[in-house]
Amino acid sequence: MSEVGAAQRRNMEESQLLMTELPALTTGTTRGGALLHRSGHYYHLHQPHLAIPAPQNPSRYNCARAPSYMNGGKKLCTYVQGIPRHLTDKRKEDNESTSAHISCLYPEILALIFRYLSVRDKGRSAQVCVAWRDAAYHRSVWRGVEARLHLRKQAPVVFASLTRRGVKRVQVLSLRRGLGDVIRGIENLEALNLSGCYNITDAGLTNAICKEFPSLTQLNLSLCKQVTDGSLSKIAQYLKNLESLELGGCCNISNTGIILIAWGLQKLKKLDLRSCWHVSDVGISHVAGLNPESAGGNLALEHLGLQDCQRLSDEALRHVSAGLLRLKSINLSFCVSITDSGLKHLAKMSSLRELNLRSCDNISDIGMAYLAEGGSRVSSLDVSFCDKIGDQALVYISQGLFNLKSLSLSACQVSDEGICKIAKTLHELETLNIGQCSRLTDKGLYTVAESMKHLKCIDLYGCTRITTSGLERIMKLPQLSTLNLGLWHVR
């Protein structure tokens, strides 16, 4: 019995010695929400009121009930009894080496994680703690993000914060202050979106753009209806590195403004003139560099938007084919004066890949024949709501436009016969929009399901003559991901 009692006393002494080396969480070791570790370093508690007090009688704890007080993934103290010191030290080292907590991650790793969050969650992460804020403000986290701002008063703090995070793309949702505050307040601004800011005037743009801004490459002035040719003069003079200019809905822009664009913006790759009703064939000749006044034109253009430009005719397409040899896409939807003859010119453009002729009332089957016979390499064609397009157009398409991957025929006068023609030849087609083609039946869908194995998207909205049988065939396509039925009713 004496030997047993001596062993118990030795164990108790070792236990007491261990507890003197591992600091307990007492009020003496806390300093304003911080805990002193035995190494002498302070560990800040984000919620000090949740700290668990040290037990009054440590000897009551055994190895099966050894609680750990954690802060930031580090064990601050552990109470053990009846375990030799060398085993306890080894277990402690193993626990510290394998402990993992997000606050232990390097800022670079945190920044890598924050890159995958939404813009709102990125902002929330920066409010958690100082370490997260510093990581969330890393420039890599905000690369490519577009800030959306309501500028109702001076906001230098906002601009400084955006600059610190490296934000270079800004969309102004509403504007009461001067536009110059935005351009001058954000260093190295690359993209400025002012779409829908109706109160922007020539005077405001003139005051804001009063020196060169070489970093600005994208400018969107869509629906800024007070903007006129006067603003384009400043833009052409000081924003010479622009690659994208959107003027959709700027109905006061005329051919004079187009001359300024052709003269000053030689690096332009995208130009949107949607609903610029005063622009005519003469203006397009300046863009194409075919007029001496244009000083070369915008020959680097790859995307040209001419939607709803009512004064354009086939002559404009002749200018485009002659001068814009790098053009990849052109939008001519709602250009009612464009006819089949204009498509002869576009068919010669080897670089053209996307052609939008939606609601061009004077485009017919003959126009499709010109495209097919001219060797056009378009991969996306939209002739929706062209009511002169019928089955014969699909015959021509099946005989010449073999590169098509997207074809839109909504509300055209096509039937099963025409759909079967393209289904048997356009095997690489991925998108087929045939909504509101009321003559289409299950027969056409059967052929589509059998032949178009690469089809990913099909629009059957308003095709009232198809039944569940045809629909079931379509749904068996191996790569189909989008099926639009709209108000279609199963019979």
Provide structural commentary.
The protein has 491 residues and is α/β, with parallel strands linked by helices. Among the domains are: 2-104, no CATH class; 339-491, Leucine-rich repeat, LRR (right-handed beta-alpha superhelix), CATH 3.80.10.10. It has 18 helices and 18 strands. The strands form three sheets. A 14-stranded parallel beta sheet has the order 5-6-7-8-9-10-11-12-13-14-15-16-17-18, with no helix packed on it. It has a two-stranded antiparallel sheet with strand order 1-2. Helix 9 (229-238) runs parallel beside helix 10. The relative contact order is 0.04. Residues 186-322, 327-448 form the F-box/LRR-repeat protein 15-like leucin rich repeat domain. This is F-box/LRR-repeat protein 14. One of its GO terms (biological process) is SCF-dependent proteasomal ubiquitin-dependent protein catabolic process.
How would you summarize this macromolecular structure in one to three sentences?
34% of the residues lie in helices and 13% in strands. It is of the alpha/beta class.
Helix content: 25-40%
- The second-level CATH architecture of the domain at 339-491 is Alpha-Beta Horseshoe
Give a short account of the largest sheet: 14 strands, parallel
Query: What does the oligomeric state look like here?
Result: single chain
The coarse overall form would be: globular
- The CATH topology of the domain at 339-491 is given as Leucine-rich repeat, LRR (right-handed beta-alpha superhelix)
CATH class category of the domain at 339-491: Alpha Beta
